[in-house]
Amino acid sequence: MTSHIAHQTPIRAGVIAGRAGVLTDETLLAVVLGHDDVRVATDVMRDHPTPDRFWRVEAEDLTSYPGIGPSAAARVLACLELGRRAAAWPRGDRPTVAKPEDAVQLLAGRVRGLDREHFWALALDTKNRLLREIDVSVGSLNASIVHPRELFKVAVRISAASVVVVHNHPSGDPTPSGADIQLTRRLVKAGDVLGIALLDHVVIGDGGEWASLRELGLL
């Protein structure tokens, strides 16, 4: 380990040695880009500051800077996705989803910076413990594209007793739309046929605000 670190630049050696927490955002980005010079990373972070705007950066944004090619841009986007997933990783085994806040806690980190509507289903056992987080679909800028078959086929296969469905509103306003309400009613009917209860439909805004269709009396 010592010899390996010795052949690294000081910045990269610090990351390998577990000192990444003391580095600036610009320096961390330079490491991901594979640059020893932080100037390009500084330019990127100036134009796309953390925490909010950097979540929304796209490959085309990154490759517009000198010295950042498709491979480096892919590494940055992969790191951002890992960050989203890590933020949503539940503590402990089999978390319980007994109220809307539980669903929000599981998935709020996943919606940050998304510019499309993503739809998830949380498949639960008879005690409301999470069996699996199901990625159902990715929609358009302002609409989810969900078919009950795609949502329930995994839930049936893993013998889920119930599901809580969650999707995001990139606009930031979590108020359920007319289409959200209609979709929820379709899912309730499909779940009734299959014997899998739809417990709630939670909408999360990009800023962390959320709305529960059950609490609003729309389920």
Describe the model.
With 219 residues, this protein is an alpha+beta fold. It folds into two domains: 2-87, DNA polymerase, domain 1, CATH 1.10.150; 90-212, Cytidine Deaminase, domain 2. The protein is 44% helix and 16% strand. It contains ten helices and five strands; from the N terminus they run ααααααααββαβαββ. It has helices at residues 2-6, 10-16, 25-33, 39-47, 52-55, 59-63, 70-88, 100-111, 148-157, 178-194, and strands spanning 118-124, 130-138, 162-169, 197-205, 210-212. It has a five-stranded mixed sheet, sandwiched between helices. A hairpin with a 5-residue loop joins strand 1 (118-124) and strand 2. Helix 3 (25-33) crosses helix 4 (39-47) and helix 9 (148-157) runs parallel beside helix 10. The longest helix has 19 residues, at 70-88. The protein is elongated and about 60 Å long. It starts with a helix and ends in a 7-residue tail after the last strand.
